[in-house]
Amino acid sequence: MVDMNTLQAIYGGTFDPVHYGHLKPVEILANLIGLQRVIIMPNNVPPHRPQPEATPAQRKYMLALAIADKPLFTLDERELKRDTPSWTSQTLAEWRAEEGPDRPLAFIIGQDSLLNLPSWHRYETILDNSHLLVCRRPGYPLLMKEEQHQRWLDEHLTHNVEDLHTRPAGKIYLAETPWFDISATIIRERLQQGLSCDALLPPAVLDYIHAQGLYQQSADA
Ligand SMILES: Nc1ncnc2c1ncn2[C@@H]1O[C@H](COP(=O)(O)OP(=O)(O)OP(=O)(O)O)[C@@H](O)[C@H]1O
Ligand SMILES: O=C(O)c1ccc[n+]([C@@H]2O[C@H](COP(=O)([O-])O)[C@@H](O)[C@H]2O)c1
């Protein structure tokens, strides 16, 4: 019999700011595959993108507000404590060393991140240490850009949820989560233009953004 309580998942991101497009697909994913806990892990130095507008402390605080009434989520500060780029391969290797070789571990990403994954630092080691759980995201193709990366994806794909709970690592699961057409970029742009973001992120996070005067200046200013 499969023990549905052992699979642990980390959800990494910049979360500048956290929004419903982060939270809702992952809550649905957790229900779909029987995940009891999701560890949200904000990065300190995002490797492949412009640096965030909010400070690490502000991004962490917004996450804490967003998950305050959601027992599914806990917060992990390990990457916030590192000043070097937040390489996921390094984080997952450390996590694997802590958890031992047998525990099923997973890293959650959106479809856009999957497409870029072959450009990540030592990406091929990620599946040595964890599974990948991928949430759908509108506006991104289903196929990898290069044939060799599509082959890599196909070789590791599973449609069997039991694989995720019984194997420690090595599988990619494309979850049939609904589309949420929300991005932190759109939220920052709307806030800068003084437009409403009420439906896009939790009210407590939005109140904090206004109280801190965050995202009101153009990023180019
Ligand atoms: N609307 C969404 N649907 C599914 N996954 C998402 C969505 N928004 C973000 N994600 C996923 O959440 C993780 C963290 O994303 P991130 O913090 O960069 O948010 P973002 O909205 O993409 O930010 P930005 O617009 O600043 O690039 C990534 O794996 C990303 O693919
Ligand atoms: O390790 C890498 O090379 C790497 C490159 C890009 C992104 N990541 C991680 O992927 C997660 C989502 O990234 P982002 O930029 O969409 O917030 C976050 O945890 C990043 O630290 C990791």
List its traits.
alpha/beta, 221 residues, 9 helices, binds adenosine-5'-triphosphate, 6-stranded parallel beta sheet, 38% helix, 13% strand
How large is the count of helical segments? Answer: 9
Helix content: 25-40%
Number of strands: 6
Strand content: 5-15%
Q: How is the biggest beta sheet arranged?
A: 6 strands, parallel
**How do the strands line up in the largest sheet?**
3-2-1-4-5-6
* Mean pLDDT figure: 95
Structural class by helix and strand composition = alpha/beta
Alpha carbon gyration radius: 17 Å
Termini separation comes to 58 Å
Large-scale geometry: globular
Unreliable spans:
none
Family: Belongs to the NadD family.
Pathway: Cofactor biosynthesis; NAD(+) biosynthesis; deamido-NAD(+) from nicotinate D-ribonucleotide: step 1/1
EC number: 2.7.7.18
Function: Catalyzes the reversible adenylation of nicotinate mononucleotide (NaMN) to nicotinic acid adenine dinucleotide (NaAD).
